[in-house]
């Protein structure tokens, strides 16, 4: 009979229990969405020291100028009704000052991650309550659809909005810069393309709707912890393009790699613009799906 009170036996039992726990963690699915996930960077991403500027290089209309308008700048919120909220309205709804969202990580589908970012703004539920006078309930909607002033659009599955916030300022209290898009929604669970720069309107939809990158083959959910980068039917071509892009990093270093990514995004924006009559065309198609 084994004497479990024997110190040597007890150490062996503890050692086997620790090995069993480690084995269970190793077998855990990488697609787990637990907020306590030990994953801090998507598989295949490299950590960079600077938040890289990426956009479609499209011109902004004159009226989109939060840097000059400050608290008078408005964002439209649509959920049955249309409400234009100023940044001043949102600040007052948040008790007169912005909340701080510290130690944020930004994960880009193109293969880089930037850690330790800090933003100031308001939780998504504060934004919703300010607009419609009730508590935000993501279960009532299927999609948070963002429309930007440069024509960019993106849909976020309502199941993925946990922890989302509107970032208005950076960590030193200045309006988010023009190169980083000014006030924008940030979804900590998702890759960065799910956050629209130059945000103009937010629509809460009854059905999920693809945006710019989803229509070109990006994954509908985009959860970085599950490495959801590409849709099944487009994964092949995007994986090959990512491999080619990575060669630039190996051959020419980080600066060349970043240059290729920035120019590539601008080129795709130019090509897409050739097939649209106006940058705002996407808004009319989304309005029919807004919750009534």
Which features characterize this protein?
single chain; 292 residues; alpha+beta; 5-stranded mixed β-sheet; 7 helices; 21% strand; globular
Summarize it.
This protein is α+β, with helices and mostly antiparallel strands and 292 residues long. Helices cover 32% and strands 21% of the residues. The chain is globular.
* Approximate strand percentage: 15-25%
Termini, distance in Å?
71 Å
Radius of gyration based on Cα positions: 22 Å
Number of helices: 7
What form results from the Cα inertia axes?
globular
Please give the structural blueprint.
Layout: H1 7-27, E1 46-48, H2 66-69, E2 74-78, E3 82-86, H3 87-93, E4 99-108, E5 112-123, H4 124-132, E6 143-148, E7 153-157, E8 165-170, E9 184-186, E10 199-205, H5 212-215, H6 235-274, H7 281-287
Parallel strand pairs: 1-5, 2-10
Antiparallel strand pairs: 2-3, 4-5, 5-8, 6-7, 6-10, 8-9
Description:
The strands form two sheets. Strands 1, 4, 5, 8 and 9 form a five-stranded mixed β-sheet that branches. A five-stranded mixed β-sheet has the order 3-2-10-6-7, sandwiched between helices. By secondary structure, it is of the alpha+beta class. The protein is built from seven helices and ten strands. Residues 15-38 and 276-288 have low confidence and may be disordered. A hairpin with a 3-residue loop joins β4 (99-108) and β5 (112-123). The chain has helices at 7-27, 66-69, 87-93, 124-132, 212-215, 235-274, 281-287; strands at residues 46-48, 74-78, 82-86, 99-108, 112-123, 143-148, 153-157, 165-170, 184-186, 199-205. The longest helix is centred in the C-terminal third of the chain and has 40 residues, at 235-274. It has one domain (46-287): Sulfite Oxidase, Chain A, domain 2, CATH 3.90.420.
